[in-house]
Amino acid sequence: MMPALAIQAARTGYEKSVVIDDISFAVAPGEFLGIIGPNGAGKSTVFKALSRVLPLWQGSVAWRGKDIRRLARRELARHMAAIPQFLMPFPYSVEEYVRMGRYPHRGRFAPLMSEDLRIVREVLELMDLAALGSKRINTLSGGEMQRVCLAQALAQQPELLLMDEPTAHLDIGNQVRIMDIVKGLTQTRGHSAVVILHDLNLASVYCDTLVLMHAGRVHCQGRPETVLKHEHIEAVYQVRVDVLPDPLTKRPHIFLRPPEP
Amino acid sequence: MKTVRVFGLLLVLLVAGVAAGITVGGTALPLEDILRALFHPRARDISGTLLWEVRLPRVLMAMVIGSGLAGCGVVLQAILRNPLAEPYTLGVSGGGALGAVIALILGLSGLPMVALCFGGCCLSMLLVLGLAALKGFSNTMLILSGVILSFLFSSVMMLVLALSSARDVHASVMWLMGNLGATQGLELKLLVFGVLPLMAVPVAMARDLNVLSLGDEQAGHLGMDVNWTKAALLIATALVTGMCVAVSGIISFIGLVIPHIMRRLVGPDHHVLVPASLIGGATLLVLSDTLAQALIRPLELPVGVVTGILGGVFFLGLLLRQGEVA
Known about the structure:
The complex is a heterodimer. Chain A is an alpha/beta fold. Chain A is 33% helix and 27% strand. In chain A, strands 6-7-8-3-9-10 form a six-stranded mixed β-sheet, sandwiched between helices. Chain A has a four-stranded antiparallel β-sheet with strand order 2-1-4-5, covered by helices on one side. In chain A, strand 9 (209-214) and strand 10 form a beta hairpin. The model of chain A has no long low-confidence stretch (mean pLDDT 93). By secondary structure, chain B is an all-alpha fold.
């Protein structure tokens, strides 16, 4: 089957210094792919390469086999929604913020149609935000804000979600809630998800595939049980760990083993 | 509906401002003379001439310039995501001021002066956009090139002033503080045919302004061609600012304060914020100009001083009452 999104032998960086090199992986429809790796490994740069923020120096990113540089930005935004780490803009209301997700679907000077408003309403319901529609986004909690960002992305009606650390700064309840929503979208609607994560155990529980990055390259990739092996983690993160299967699900679980005092 | 109430209040204030502008002015006209002149535009007695050839053009100019500057402020604050952004942030006024001072010292007035001033504005706009385009059109680069070019142009202007006579310096300083006295047909035409149509740009692009205010990266994710959109909006604002400066000098504070006040009153959604700011800017400038003419009759205050004091005091009050600015 043709992958939804594929990055092939990609190299890019900032100014003259290479940050990521020879990056290749692909995500299929309905697949939940996690990108993991230490700080500075190049995860956010991969995010920018995939979302066309940063031009590639070599290699390509393809949406359903077509180079994303050949797609109009507006068209790409109808297939793929990217949620970067959040920056607080003006204090829009939740509904105003989510409506902006309809941007790629309407011509510059065309007003929003009742269909757009219906989609916005549905997305707000789905994200359990219907009661907060008129609330200002600067008054929301971290968990609510993350759901609002996800709602804006879903209002784009994408087939793929690209997320940069959606669980950062959230408590475990909200982490699980966000991951459950994304997992649900991959299972019920066949959306693909490419998610940068720091929590390896969270990645193990939710992801179908993991890409472990190290120093700007892919260290290894595959199913969680092949990637989350203690030799890989110790090599990349420079920490002592043990990896044992979860007694219920058999998915790998990482235990930290700090040096004895 | 709070928004409807705010718009109602703004319109009432605007009508009151226009009424005050045509009745008070430099010398108070009796109401019956004004009404007679209004309904008999052909009869050109003294009050008729004053009304149709001095007062009304001046009020109209104040409205267009106030709207123009406030609209530019909204656009720049959205694009640059910076609460201190205003029409003069990108250095447009620096080149304009230099051009105007040179024109004053050369003894020019009318079309040559307007042309020199507007030319200066366009020159600084092109330099800022060009410099920023070299570095990927980032907001930081735009702001820095604007600020640096402002300094450069104002230093050259200081040099010119230092070498000129006290009379020229006084005329230049008065011009720099903003003045709406020049109600010749030329200036009015420039505003009506130049500025008014361009003000449709931010109204029509309200959704783009919303999306741009999320930052360049997020706007790109939502499918916007960010550089082209930004360039179009920046050129429109620079042209409007340039024309306003060429006609009236540097009227400060409206472009900074009106967007903030209106954002407090109607929220940040540009579909509402842009029209509110256009009306609010018109209102503030008409009222300020009336005060500027009336306060120390028969002399006239520079209107920029009045907008600064009025806008500043009002904004401080709002700030202290509601806390954090966004």
